[in-house]
Amino acid sequence: MKITVVGTGYVGLVSGACFADVGIEVVCVDIDQKKIDKLKKGVMPIYEPGLEEIVVRNYQSGRLTFSTNLGEAIQDSEVAFIAVGTPPGEDGSADLKYVLAVADEIGRTMNDYIVVATKSTVPVTTGCKVKKAIQDALDKRGSDLKFAVASNPEFLKEGAAVEDFLKPDRIIIGVEDDRAEEIMKRLYKPFQLSGDRIIYMDIPSAEMTKYTANAMLATKISFMNDIANLCELVGADANMVRSGIGSDPRIGNKFIYPGVGYGGSCFPKDVKAIVKTAKQYGYDLRVLEAVEAVNDDQKYKLVHKVKKHFGDDLSGKTFAMWGLSFKPNTDDMREAPAIVIIDELRAAGAKVKAYDPIAMEEAKEVYVGDKVTYCKDAYDACVDADALLLVTEWSEFRIPSWSALNKLLNNKVIFDGRNIYDRKYLNELGFTHYGIGV
C-alpha cells in the first residue's frame, strides 16, 4: 500500500514515519526544499522523542521517502493526507489557504481514485471546501476521475507523539462512502491488532471532534487555574483540592494541575478557532471565551508574585529561569508562558538568565541578541541570580541540589510555576517558596 503525506511538520512527519514503520510505502511531501534535504540526511525539523530513530530507520529501508513534487508523489497512492499548517488569522479563524492549495494540486495531478484525508486541524465544513477544490481542478482538466474526501484528525501529544500514533487510544475517521471507509480500515489495520479503536462518523462530526477534544482539555486547565487563584485568596491549597477532585473518576486526575497556563501549537489556536466558528454561526461559546481569558491572565501570574516580593521596579535584578518550552519533552515555544514571563520581567527592568534542555535554540529565534542570557546548565543560570523561576517541569528540574542553589542564588527565593516542589521542605531549608494556588 502506498500513501502520500503532504506537510513535514509535527503532524505530517510523525504520521508518515509511523505509517512507514508498519510496512506502508510513504512519500512525505513539503514545498521547503531545505527541510526535505535535511530530512534525507536525518536532520529533524522538530524535537520529538523517538522520532529521529524511526525516520532514519524507515528512510534507510526505502519505505519512507521525501519529495517536493506532490504530483509525482500521489501517483499510485491510495490515500493522500493533508497535514499542512492552519495558522490563526487576525480574527482567530483557521487559515485554510495551505489546505486548499494542496487540494487544488491534488485535483490537477491525480491519475486514479484516491482518498484525500485531512489531518490538519480544520473547522467544520472544511471537508466540503476540500472536495470542491479538487472537483474544480478536475473539471478544468475535463477529467471524470473519482475521489473521496475524509477527515482523520490527529490526537498526538507533543513529547509522546510517536507512542500515541503507534498505540492510539482512538482513531477518528470521517468518511462519506463505503469505498473510502474500506481503504482507511485497511490502512489502519496494523494499529488495531489489540482491539478495534476506529470510530467512524460523518466528516463534519470528525472535524468537530478534534476541536472539541482540545477545547475540553484546555477548559480543564483553565478551570483548575481559576480555582487555584481562588484557593490563594481563601487560604486553601490547590494541590490538595486537585487530589480531592482527581480521585473522582468522573473528573479524573489529568489536566487539572495548577500552573502558568497552557501554550503550544494546538490549544491556543484551536480554542480561538472554535470560538470564531461559533460566532460565524451566530453563537457565542461563552465557556471557551472564559477559558481563553483565564489562560491569557494566568501567564502573568508568576510575574505578579515576583513583583509582590521584590516590588514593581525590578531594575538591577537578575532572575534565573528554568524551562522555556510550553511543556516538557518538546522544543515548541509557540504561545509558551515563558515568552510572556520574560517580556514582563524585562519590561520591569530585570535581566533573565535561562536554561532549557532542548528549547534554547528555538528560543533564540524568539529573542534575538542579548535580551536573554542562555546558560550551559540549570545551575549556571542561578549564579548571582536574585531568585529562581521554574516555568517548565522538565524531569531534571524535579530534585535539584538545594545546597548548591543556596550557594548560587543571591536570595533563597523560588517561584514555582508548576507546583513541583514541596513548600514545607523548602521552608525548612530556609527557602521562600511561591507556588500556584497555595
From TrEMBL:
Pathway stated in the Swiss-Prot or TrEMBL entry:
Nucleotide-sugar biosynthesis; UDP-alpha-D-glucuronate biosynthesis; UDP-alpha-D-glucuronate from UDP-alpha-D-glucose: step 1/1
Annotated EC: 1.1.1.22
Which EC class is this protein assigned? Answer: oxidoreductase
- Keyword NAD carried by entry: yes
Q: Write down a Pfam family by its short name.
A: UDPG_MGDP_dh_C
Keyword Oxidoreductase in the entry? The reply is yes
- Cite the entry's keywords alphabetically: NAD, Oxidoreductase
| UDP-glucose/GDP-mannose dehydrogenase C-terminal domain: residues covered | 320-423
Q: What is catalyzed by this enzyme?
A: UDP-alpha-D-glucose + 2 NAD(+) + H2O = UDP-alpha-D-glucuronate + 2 NADH + 3 H(+)
Into which family does the record put it? Belongs to the UDP-glucose/GDP-mannose dehydrogenase family.
Name recorded for this polypeptide: UDP-glucose 6-dehydrogenase
